[in-house]
Amino acid sequence: RICAKGTGLIIPFIRRRWWFFQQRFVSTISLGMILPIVLYFLIVNPFSKIFVNHYDSVPFEEWAFPGMLILIGIVSIIPILYRDLFDYRIHKKAILSMTLAPISKLKLLSGFLISAILESLFFVCVGSAMYSILTGIVFAPVDYGIILGFILVINVLAGCFVTSVALLFSRVFSFFFVLIVFLLYLIFGTGMIFSIDFFPENFGMILKYVPFGLLIQELQQTLFYGEFHWLPISSLVLLIVPWIYINSEFLRRKLNQ
Question: How many helices (H) and strands (E) does the chain have?
């Protein structure tokens, strides 16, 4: 009964995202197709000519496949959470009306986050199809399941991070500055494109144990070398619930101001 009640509270948020999707159907589909093409020609295609034999005989385009899907998922989450938790809050729009509903701030944030992640998975699926068309790379169904599972965890953590930034900052410049730095870190500092081995040893060791870099490297180890480690992944999954709770406290304090 508790699970059914919790699901019932989330469904309105999903219906809300579905309504927005229907209203912007053509632009959403177009963005879903254009985004992976832009990322491919700006990142993957140029670097594939540089990193030819660096990834233990794994072609660079295949190595970058899961990383590009992760990037697509995170990039698609940012505008959704920006609108719901930053723009609407700063300009006193819809979110203030939602906070009057008889549900906790924790459930409110969970609804925003889950609906945003579901929409981001749509962009990930479209991006996967477009990337396969551009490169001719097709993974086995089990491999797609592994990629999707890791992307789900990474997207939740990224959503928590974006939520924290949206609630902690009140200036548009500060919000986007932090997120631009975050995206640069994802592209260049997680092993998504450049191997951590390119960095100085001490700095590389730090990057290896930052949560997003750790998950992306675990994904690559699982996908390409068949090595799966439960402990680091489980510890990061356990981080999600307290992080959402902390964000709900940020939201409560911001609204009380």
Answer: 13, 0
